[in-house]
Amino acid sequence: MTHPAAIWNQICRSFSGAHLLQTWEWGHVKSHFGWQPLYVIWKRHGDFTLLTENDISRLFSQLMLEVNNKEFTACAMILQRSIPIRGFAKRMSVLYIPKGPLLDWSDNDLCQRVLSDLKVIAKQRGAIFIKIDPDVRVGSGIPGSSEATSDATGEAVIIQLKKDHWRFSDDQIQFRNTCMIDLSGSEEELLAKMKQKTRYNIRLAERKGVTVRRGKFSDISMLYQMYTQTSLRDGFTIREENYYRTTLETFMARPQSQNINQPSAHPLIAEVDGMPVAAVVIFSFAGKAWYLYGMSIEAHREKMPNHLLQWEAIRLSKELGCQVYDLWGAPDVFDQTDSMWGVYRFKEGLGGKVIRHIGAWDYPNQPFLYRLYSQTLPQILSIMRRQQKKQSQRLVG
Q1: Strands of 234-334, DSSP E
Q2: CA distance 191 to 181
Q3: How many angstroms separate the Cα of 136 from the Cα of each of 153, 170, 242, 359, 388?
Q4: Are 277 and 300 within 8 A, CB to CB?
Q5: Which SS3 state, helix, strand or coil, does residue 303 take?
Q6: C-alpha 379: how far from its chain's center?
Q7: pLDDT over 70 at 380, yes or no
Q8: What is the per-residue pLDDT across 150-190, written as a single tens digit (0 to 9) for each?
C-alpha cells in the first residue's frame, strides 16, 4: 500500500491555511502518546467521509485524482483521546482538531456545513466535546494601535460559532495570537525591518565568535537537556524526552531538501568554541516555517546567541522556499502584565507582525460531562506540571 502521508499532506496543501499540525506526521507523533488520528474530507457533493490511515492508503489513487480535480472543499485531521470516567461503564473520549479544520472560512455555507458535520462526528464517536482552533484571523497589529486592522471573515466565523452553540474555550492549547515575518524581501530588506538593537545584537554575536550549525539526530539528547534547563529558568513546563525525540525523529526523517511541500524539522545550534549554548527547532511545510522550540543555557548569554540563531532561522526559511516565518506565540493582553510580554518584545525586534486569531472553540456534545471535565482538567494539569518540574530538576541535578 502507498504511504498515507503522501496523499494526506497533498490534500492539506490544497488549502491556503495548510498547517504543520494538520499533517500526517503530526498525527503520527500524537499516536504514540494516547491519541488516535482520524481523517475527514468534505467534497463538493455528498456527505463527509471519515478515514483511517489504512483507508487513505487503500484509496490512494482515487484520492489523488480527486485532489488534482479540486474535489475537496474541506479537510481535518482529528485527534481522539479516550479517557476513563469513574462510574460509567464505557470509556469516554475528547476530540481535538489542532489548527483546523482547513477550508475557505469566508464561504458561509461551507462553514455552516463543516461545523454542523463536526457535531455529528462528535456524537458518532461518543465524545464529551470537540475542540477546534483554526488559523482564522480576526485582525493584525496590537488592538488600539494605529496599525491595528480587523478581519471581517474572522468576525463572521465567531458569530456563526456562537449561533451554533460553540463555546470559546478556557483551554487554549495553542497560542491564540502570534507574530509573523513576511519573507518575501531580500535579506537586506528583512534586516532593515528589524529593530536597530536587534541588528546590533546579531552583529555582536558574530563578533563574539558565536557560530550556528545544523542539528543532527545525535544532538537530540543534548537539545532536551538544554530545553530542560530553559524550562526551569523561565518557569514553563515541558514534556518527557521521548515526546520530543519522537517528534524530531519523525520530522527530521523527511527529506531535508528544497521541497517545501514535505513537512520537516530543522534544528539550529549556536556554539561558542564548540560548546552548544542555544538552539532553535524550525519546522516547515507548504511554504511556511514555524519556530516551535527554543532553548539556551546560562553560559555566554551576553554574546546574544539567540539573536544570531533567529537570523539564521530566517535565512534557512527563505532557503527552503518559505513565504512566511511564524514565530509561534504572542500575548493575549498586549501589556507588561502578560507572561509573554518579554518574548513578544524579542519577536517584535525581529520584525514580527502581530496576527490575532479566533482561538480555540469547544462544542460540548455532553454538557454535563463537559462541565465536569472542564472543572477537573485544570487540577490534573497542575499536578502534571508539578511532577514534570520535579523530573526536570532531577534531570538537571
Answers
A1: 264-272, 275-285, 288-296, 324-326
A2: 11
A3: 8, 18, 32, 8, 33
A4: yes
A5: helix
A6: 24
A7: no
A8: 999 999 999 999 999 999 999 999 999 999 999 999 999 99
Is 284:264 a contact under the CB 8 Å cutoff? yes
Hey, what's the cell of 218?
A: 545525535
Supply the angle between the helices 220-234 and 241-252 in degrees, to the nearest 10.
130
What are the start-end ranges of the H helices in the chain?
A: 4-13, 24-31, 53-58, 60-68, 108-124, 152-163, 187-192, 196-207, 220-234, 241-252, 305-319, 341-349, 367-396
pLDDT of residue 92: 81
Query: Strand 137-140 to strand 102-103: parallel, antiparallel, or no bridges (unpaired)?
Result: unpaired
Q: How far apart, in whole angstroms, are the C-alpha atoms of residue 320 and residue 259?
A: 7
CB-CB neighbours of 376 under 10 Å: 10
Q: How many residues does the chain have?
A: 397
Q: Which three cell numbers stand for residue 64?
A: 489523488
Whether the upstream peptide bond of residue 4 has omega within 30° of 0, thus cis, is: no
What amino acid is encoded at 73 in this protein? T
- Distance between CA 168 and CA 360 in Å, rounded? 6
Sign of CA dihedral 345, 347, 353, 357: negative
How far separated are the first and last CA of the chain, in Å rounded? 48
- DSSP annotation of 335 reads S
With a pLDDT cut of 90, the percent of the chain lying above it is: 81
pLDDT tens, position by position, 76-90: 999 999 986 665 545
φ and ψ at 168, to 5 degrees? -60, 130
Helix (H) or strand (E) holding 37: strand 36-43
Q: CA–CA separation, 265 vs 227, rounded Å?
A: 16
C-alpha distances in angstroms, 352 versus 68, 179, 191, 325? 35, 5, 12, 9
Q: Which positions ≥6 away from 9 have C-beta within 8 Å?
A: 23, 24, 25, 261, 262, 263, 285
Residue located via cell numbers 477546534: 132
Identify which has the larger pLDDT, 64 or 373: 64
CA–CA gap between residue 167 and residue 203 (Å, rounded): 47
Neighbours of 2 (CB within 10 A): 14
In a 10 Å sphere around its CB, with 0-12 CB exposed, 13-18 middle and 19+ buried, how is residue 391 labelled?
A: middle
